[in-house]
Specification:
elongated; 4-stranded antiparallel sheet; single chain; 11 strands; alpha+beta; about 160 residues; 3-stranded mixed sheet
Length: about 160
């Protein structure tokens, strides 16, 4: 069983994965214990959790630098456009993943190590530091795109 798995937008994580994430953001994420029972009735011996990322970021992308170009998004009550005078836009996730180059607004993601972005359904984003810790621990199941850029990164252009 991998240390991180996703099914239908839910994240299933091992105790080892939880122990890596929690020191980065204590108390920010929910971990609900679950039982995993395989087809032949055998139960997974290691502890696993349903993880709910406690940091959700709305309107997080820099619409001028993100590629592929963003598409217009209808404004709704409660959404504040961070780019006054420009249309509110959302990420065009219909493009092939290899072409994705999101640039997050620094003020929206600064200090976050694991978060969901409203523009990306069923994706988690992690900081470079958390990614390094996950990779160094040899976690199974974690696949990474990126690293993602922020508006104050030199690579964000």
């Amino acid at each position: 069983m991998p240390d991180l798995d996703s099914t239908l937008g839910a994240y299933i994580v091992s105790q080892a994965f939880r122990e890596i994430v929690e020191p980065f953001e204590p108390g920010q994420h929910q971990f609900e214990p679950i039982r995993i029972v395989y087809a032949k009735g055998e139960e997974e011996p290691r502890p696993y959790y349903l993880m709910v990322a406690g940091q959700r970021v709305v309107i997080s992308l820099d619409q001028g630098r993100t590629r592929p170009p963003m598409r217009e998004f209808p404004e709704r009550p409660g959404l504040v456009n961070p780019n006054p005078g420009k249309p509110l836009q959302s990420f065009n996730s219909g493009a092939p993943i290899k072409d994705w180059a999101p640039v997050f607004r620094h003020e929206a993601v600064a200090g976050r190590h694991l978060f969901c972005a409203a523009d990306f359904r069923n994706y988690l984003f992690v900081s470079r530091e958390l990614r390094r810790a996950i990779e160094d621990a040899g976690m199974k199941g974690a696949r990474f795109l990126g690293p993602f850029a922020t508006t104050d990164d030199a690579m964000a252009g």
